[in-house]
C-alpha cells in the first residue's frame, strides 16, 4: 500500500466502524426520515488547519446557521492531502445531514485530476450550495526588493528555479496561481506546499518563501499592518476590496491570466432531498444576512448562494476548465 493510500485508510479508520458501510447508513437515514431534522449537533468538516480561508468562512457562517437550524454547528478541521482527507471523511458519513463538507476547488476539482482517489467527487457527494467566491492576492514579504509584479517576474526570469512560492497545499488555488504565472510569464519558480493558509502565512511573514497567491482572508490584516506587500490580484477584474491593486493580467501583460477560487457546501451521497433543501435554505438565509455578508467581505469573501443544481454544474465546468492546466503544470500530490 502506498503512503497516500495508507493516509486515506487511516482517515477512514478514524471514523466509527459503521461509517464504512454505505448500505446501513442509508437505511438508518431513511429509518429516521420521519424524525424532526435536525435533532442533534451538525458538524461541518474543513480540510485545512484553523486560520485559513476555508476555516474562516465556515466559522463565520456557523453561529448564524446554528440560530436558523436550532442545533449546534461544530466545525471540525481535518487537514491533509489538499482537502481530500476531509472529503474522504464525509463520503463515509451517514447521509443523515449531520456531517457536511465545506469543499474547496482543490478538493473537488484539482485533486481528482492529479491523482486517483478512493472516492468519486461527482458520484459520492451531494452538492448543496455554493458558499463564497474567494479573493486571492499575490503578496511578497516586505524585505523583498520587488515593488511591482514585473519586477518579481524579472527576478524570477534572471534566476530560474530559485524563487519559491508557497501555497496552502498541492492543487490549491494558490498552487494553481503560481503554476499559471510560471506558464504564462515563461518563468520557473519552486512550489512549497503547506497544510493550510495559516501555516503558509506564518512562513511568508518570516520570509521563508518569496511570494504567494493567498486568500485575502489570511493576507489582508498583514497587508494593512505593513507586514506583507501586495502586488496584484489574480482575477479577471480588479476587486472593489482592494481597488488600487492591478490584476495580474494587466500588471504583467498576461491577458489569459484569470484565477477563480471558491468554497461550497456538500453532504454524503444519498443525502435526502428534504434535508438538502433545508440546509440550502439555511445557507441562503445566512449568506444573505447583511452582518454575515459584511463580515465575509472584510476577509475578501463574497457570499454566493446557489441551488444544488447550479453547484453540480459548476463543479463539472470547473473540472473541464482546470484539468488541462493541471496536467500541463505536471502537478502531482506531495
Automatic annotation (TrEMBL):
<dbReference type="InterPro" id="IPR006311">
    <property type="entry name" value="TAT_signal"/>
</dbReference>
<protein>
    <recommendedName>
        <fullName>Tripartite tricarboxylate transporter substrate binding protein</fullName>
    </recommendedName>
</protein>
<comment type="similarity">
    <text>Belongs to the UPF0065 (bug) family.</text>
</comment>
<keyword id="KW-0732">Signal</keyword>
<feature type="signal peptide">
    <location>
        <begin position="1"/>
        <end position="22"/>
    </location>
</feature>
<dbReference type="InterPro" id="IPR005064">
    <property type="entry name" value="BUG"/>
</dbReference>
<dbReference type="Pfam" id="PF03401">
    <property type="entry name" value="TctC"/>
</dbReference>
<dbReference type="InterPro" id="IPR042100">
    <property type="entry name" value="Bug_dom1"/>
</dbReference>
Amino acid at each position: 500500500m502506498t503512503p497516500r493510500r495508507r493516509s486515506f485508510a487511516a482517515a477512514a479508520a478514524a471514523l466509527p466502524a459503521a461509517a464504512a458501510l454505505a448500505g446501513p447508513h442509508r437505511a438508518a437515514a431513511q429509518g429516521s426520515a420521519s424524525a424532526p431534522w435536525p435533532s442533534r449537533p451538525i458538524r461541518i468538516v474543513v480540510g485545512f488547519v484553523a486560520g485559513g480561508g476555508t476555516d474562516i468562512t465556515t466559522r463565520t457562517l456557523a453561529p448564524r446557521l446554528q440560530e436558523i437550524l436550532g442545533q449546534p454547528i461544530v466545525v471540525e478541521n481535518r487537514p491533509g492531502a489538499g482537502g481530500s482527507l476531509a472529503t474522504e471523511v464525509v463520503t463515509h458519513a451517514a447521509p443523515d445531514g449531520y456531517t457536511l463538507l465545506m469543499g474547496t476547488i482543490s478538493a473537488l476539482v484539482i485533486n481528482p485530476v492529479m491523482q486517483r482517489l478512493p472516492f468519486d467527487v461527482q458520484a459520492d457527494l451531494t452538492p448543496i450550495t455554493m458558499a463564497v467566491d474567494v479573493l486571492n492576492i499575490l503578496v511578497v514579504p516586505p524585505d523583498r526588493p520587488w515593488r511591482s509584479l514585473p519586477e518579481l517576474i524579472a527576478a524570477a526570469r534572471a534566476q530560474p528555479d530559485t524563487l519559491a512560492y508557497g501555497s496552502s497545499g498541492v492543487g490549491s488555488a494558490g498552487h494553481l496561481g503560481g503554476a499559471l504565472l510560471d506558464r504564462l510569464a515563461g518563468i520557473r519558480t519552486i512550489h512549497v506546499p503547506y497544510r493550510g493558509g495559516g501555516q503558509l502565512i506564518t512562513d511568508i511573514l518570516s520570509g521563508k518563501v518569496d511570494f504567494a497567491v493567498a486568500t485575502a482572508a489570511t493576507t489582508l490584516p498583514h497587508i494593512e499592518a505593513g507586514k506583507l506587500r501586495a502586488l496584484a490580484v489574480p482575477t479577471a477584474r480588479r476587486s472593489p476590496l482592494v481597488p488600487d491593486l492591478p490584476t495580474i493580467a494587466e500588471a504583467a501583460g498576461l491577458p489569459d491570466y484569470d484565477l477563480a477560487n471558491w468554497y461550497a457546501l456538500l453532504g454524503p451521497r444519498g443525502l435526502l432531498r428534504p434535508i438538502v433543501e433545508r440546509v440550502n435554505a439555511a445557507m441562503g438565509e445566512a449568506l444573505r444576512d447583511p452582518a454575515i455578508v459584511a463580515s465575509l467581505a472584510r476577509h475578501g469573501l463574497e457570499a454566493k448562494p446557489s441551488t444544488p443544481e447550479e453547484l453540480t454544474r459548476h463543479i463539472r465546468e470547473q473540472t473541464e476548465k482546470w484539468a488541462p492546466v493541471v496536467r500541463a503544470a505536471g502537478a502531482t500530490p506531495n
